[in-house]
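Translate sequence into structure tokens.
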Amino acid sequence: MSGNGWCLIAMKKFIITVLGEDRPGIIASVTKVLHDQDYNIEEVSQTILQNQFACFFIVAGRGKNSTARLAAELKENTAGFELFFHVRELGTHVNLNRGQKCEPYVVTTRGPDRKGLVAGITAVFAAHHVNVAQLRAVFRGGAEPGDNTMIYEVDIPLSVDLNELRRALSERAKELDLQISIQHRNIFETMNRVL
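Result follows.
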């Protein structure tokens, strides 16, 4: 209890995964539950994969809340949407790149659709301690390069030999029959604004 007579309750952070068939009103419904239950939304990332809605929320709430209670509230109050929820409390996790200065890059690949494309490229990132901050991929099948695109937004530590990373990525892309482009994010964004 604090000196002014108020009981101090610690805040907890949760990450919420929401999955379901896309339809209007999902975000409004989910965020209403979070508001009604006194959660503050700190970050949101949402996308549509084919006809499937996928969203991640990071929220903060009072210490009395639990993952089970939050998941139950969400499920009960969005029943009409038939959504799937996964709720996990965020603890303190070690980020291997924390404390290291990084530069943001965008790596784009195009090529024939085949198994192992994402695994092959991300293995190179992992070997060089490069963190994938965001990945967008569209595979329409077939051999037309423009129909199969992957865009990786990555954080490259300054300690990484950029020439060696470029060489390793180019070699892996050649093995996978991919065209590859590696650009600093500022250059990528400037070029896409011009185009």
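Note: Strands lie at 11-21, 40-49, 52-62, 84-89, 102-110, 131-139, 148-157, 179-184.
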